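Predict the assembly for these three chains.
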Amino acid sequence: MDNLLQGAAHGLMAVIKPIADDEWILGHRGSEWLALAPDLEGDMALSSISQDNLGHAQFYYELLHSLGLPSADEQVYLRTAAEWTNAHLLEVPNHDWAGTIALRYLYQVFDDIRHQGLLASPYQPLTDGVRKIRREAQYHLQHFQTGFEMLAIGTDESRQRLIEGVNQVWEMLGDLFSWGPAEAFLPDLGLQGVSEKVVKTAWMDRIEAQFRHLGLPEPAAIPQPALNGRLGQHSEALADLLDEMTEVRRIGLSAPW
Amino acid sequence: MEDTGRMAAFMARIESGEKIEATDWMPEEYRNLLIKQIHMHGISEIMGAYPEKEWVPKAPTIRRKLALNAKVQDEIGHGQMLLRLAEDLSRPYGRGREELMDDVLDGRIKFHNVFHMEAPTWADAGVIGFLVDGGAIITQAMLLDSSYAPYARMLKRIVAEESFHMQHGEAVVLALAEGNQAQREMLQGAINRWWAPMMFFFGPTQMGKSAEAMMGYRIRTKTNEELRQKFINRYVPRIRALGMTIPDAELRLDPATQEWHYSQPDWELYNAMVRNNTGPRSQARLALRRQAHVDQRWVREAMNAAAQRIANQGSERQSAM
Amino acid sequence: MHESQTAEFPVFEVFVQKESLGFHINVGSLRAASPELALQLAREIFFRRETAYNVWVVPQDCIFSSPHDEAHLPVEGMDKRYRLPGGYDNATHWKRFKAKAMTIEEVAKDIRS
């Protein structure tokens, strides 16, 4: 943090926090699929991806800790819902398999674009980590893209369910691209490449091309967010998730576990 | 006549310590015993994912959440490897993954008693790793010497992965033992719940017909009682060292024979539980497995249909060239 | 594909298992007219000086190979110590309780003896 101005550290934290929270909540919900996937081999793949997501979040929380926030564990276990900045669509209870694949594919394309933009940061601890994370995230993208394409061309049922899944997820897309107050810091941090407008445009281009390729209904415009998770606005689902997640930890906040 | 000769040659191979391969001739009884054993072993690994899986969302630290996730994933992985072996053995009967998985839902194959039980606290998640995995490691270490080569090969991989499970289970238990009053009470409660099921886990001292037959074919090489004694001998001193008690007033080491005396678990209760899926959590966990396997068959069908479509497109493109 | 007369034999990849508890490892490939011949020839081409427990031959066009990229291959990503036995320090804690730590090697040895 030595070479970071106080202001820059503040801005960086505001940028890193929602990324960390996205990955953690994704990993938490993904873990709920354990032993419930349609096949054993696919179950293991999804579990590895959940572990990767949690591991990515852990890296970001440790980075935030180095910038002055409490320890990674405290950030995860001791925050109230209003202090979380994950996107709304990640916190809702798991959809059926098709909806989950739809959500994951749409998210991974977003994550891929966000990673590319983050690599422009002059802050090396961040770019070093993002480079490592990308090694895993490229596989996640590949995996969910394959799943998405196969459900789209599989059977009438799978195609119908996938379209329904996309529609369910689409309604909640509003805040995914938002940075809330962090947007203002992006130019000074050299991170214009992850601004809401840039990411949204690049994402929509890729998604529209894919939907065309698979003959899926043309996607609607991205809706305005009803709740903006980036501003700490969340559904009951996040409060419930956090309640369950911290149930054991609350028995002894500072006890060894 | 030819069969008698083949049988004698087969038994001679087994007795000289040779390993049998999937493609070798084998007596029907050997094949059926293997299927029974490996199928139940594989299904138990999969059903064993559920009691611990319940605790992944509630794991109290980042590290524990990652480790428990990885451990449950390994259990599914062991189930996968073992079912693949059982599927290969079942090929002459025209049965594959779909059927072998259906079997547990239709009550045609049983799973270990311990996975019918409740795991009501975080300490149960730890004690499962500590004692249930401890017991499984003892059984699986024996199976490393199995006469069926594909089983022995897979067990090498499985036992290597169990090493992490053992460390994870111990770490959770040790942290609770070093923790506050509530944590220590939680740990004692879990030990109280799991001790008797673990005594049942290894099976009756007087082994059943198929267990005896498996000894004859060297599919397994130790008796139930030998394994149970190894378990008690290993875990009793450690549980006591943690300042915990074992819920068995009869438990004592006979200094003359170096054998442990212990109270008999309720054989009838646990047998009925395994046979009829009437344990406290049997039906709930079977419902989860049904949700995964039956309610999502449409996903597997769709993936196959998609793969077929892609292959057809490929060959159309090739023949157009 | 068009059926046509050709003098070119198909390619088989050769996998050898050195001992009964080992796994099959790819050692190279050869051309042969049939799988049976491929098995016979593998013996001459790869095992003139060594023994083997089992040999597989697999038509090369049955093999699907991963590209050398990060999306397809396990790579060193984030910290995975949580899933390695070496990532735990239980021995120190057992010592505090005056008990001995266990290792899987020691358990396996004890059971198999």
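Chain B has a mean pLDDT of 96. The radius of gyration of chain B is 22 Å.
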